[in-house]
Amino acid sequence: MANLASTYRNQGRWTQAKELEVQVMETRKRVLGAEHPDTLTSMANLASTYRNQGRWTQAEELEVQVMETRKRVIGAEHPSTLTSMANLASTFWNQGRWTQAEELEVQVMETRKRVLGAEHPSTLTSINNLAHTYMKQERKDDALALISSCANLCLKVLGCSHPITEAVLSTWLEWSSDELGQGEQGEQDSRQIPGAWVD
Hints:
Number of domains: 2
CATH superfamily of the largest domain: Tetratricopeptide repeat domain
Shape: globular
Oligomer: single chain
């Protein structure tokens, strides 16, 4: 059922995905317990579906539960806990709650640097996300510094033809040209790159 729900989610069939995800989550809670890793994954998947539907309150409630439980059960520095924090930050970000998003993103980025290393793809994702938050907060110098650092690391680690590197370089070029007064009018949300920045 979880796999079918994932397929529905990947196809954008949110209602069908949600129905299955609720069943999977409730069954896992009953059979495995509320703190079991599989139950928490089910809750995180349902939260993701809510986030994709713009149902921010429901997404946030589940994400907070998952994050707090993972902190308590597997520790604050575990990659799954950090992913939960990043997902909650994304929910805040999509609502324009920049300060709350920034607080979590800084924690995630710093912890990933320390635990996984500065060049790990998850760390690069964190750097990218924080740069976009800084840009939304009109902290252009901070945003440019971070995205430039991220671009250099992506080139070094992933190579110039990797989709993540291409996306980061595109953002860096756009922001740099905007800074020089050469950017086009209008705003694009390059933070949400399908498949590349999903935490």
